Amino acid sequence: MENAIRTLSLLVIGLVPLIAAADAPVILTVSVFNDAAASPSVMSQAQNRATLILRRAGITLVWLDCGTPHDPPANSGCCDLSFPQHLSVRLVSTSGPASADIFGQTFQNAAGEGNYALVYFGSLKSSNTSEVIKTGDLLGFVIAHELGHLLLGRDSHSATGLMSAVWQVNELRQASQGILFFTNNQQDRIRARCLAAQAAVRKAASWSSTGSGR
Ligand SMILES: [Zn+2]
Questions:
Q1: pLDDT in tens, 71-86
Q2: pLDDT, tens digit (0-9, with 9 covering 90-100), for 22-79
Q3: Ligand 1 mean position to 157 CA, how many Å?
């Protein structure tokens, strides 16, 4: 009986880090470079929408307002990017290079890692979706989609939902109703990748502090 209790204790002790990891807060910082000079109300609505979407994946977004090229904030930490803890989104006023239907683009290496997302605000503003969804809200869905690319890695489009390559009537209807999200599988993968990166940073920091103590 005593052995059984000991085994149970060991199991419980072993589970504690797993439970802690599952509940661990994941904070992701996003530098926003508003080259397109989108209005504060559009930016606020977009950030609220993207925050809501990522929160369902267990990710808390922290936004850094990195201003415009003519008015950058001083000492903001906007360029201290680090995958995947600190990503960036740049809004440009032009349309997509290949097609006006493309609202965004991300840049990743062969390992599927990257910090940079572009949003073609010109394409987005001139799209014919304004009757079903407000510009700020649409921008929020687009930002969440591009962050999804950075967090999920290469080939991260899905047949339907937020990560579909082309938003059809169904996706736009869901967006207008505020119910266009990542799939559960995508949410799990995003959170797992962020948690793994967070654990790696902690491990490196503990090695570094152990080394400096010698
Ligand atoms: Zn895409």
A1: 888 878 999 999 999 9
A2: 677 899 999 999 999 999 999 999 999 999 999 999 999 999 999 988 888 887 899 9
A3: 6
Q: How far is the CA of 28 from the centre of ligand 1 (A)?
A: 20
Does 19 score more than 50 pLDDT? no
3-state secondary structure of 82: strand
Residue 191 Cα to ligand 1 midpoint, Å, equals 19
Element (H, E) at 51: helix 40-55
Measured in angstroms, how far is the CA atom of residue 68 from the centroid of ligand 1?
25
CA of 205 to the centre of ligand 1 (A): 34
158 CA to middle of ligand 1, Å?
9
Alpha helices in 56-134 (DSSP H): 121-125
| CATH topology for the 26-199 domain | Collagenase (Catalytic Domain) (3.40.390)
The domain locations on the chain are 26-199
Q: What does the DSSP assignment read for 151-201?
A: HH-SS--BSSSTTBSS--HHHHHHHHTT-----HHHHHHHHHHHHHHHHHH
Find the 6 Cα to ligand 1 centroid distance in Å: 51
Q: Kindly give the distance from the C-alpha atom of residue 145 to the centroid of ligand 1, in angstroms, as a whole number.
A: 6
Name the token pair of 159: 């047949």
Interatomic CA distance for residues 186 and 195, integer angstroms: 14
**Ligand 1 mean position, distance from CA 122 (Å):** 17
Distance (Å, whole) CA 153 – CA 147: 10
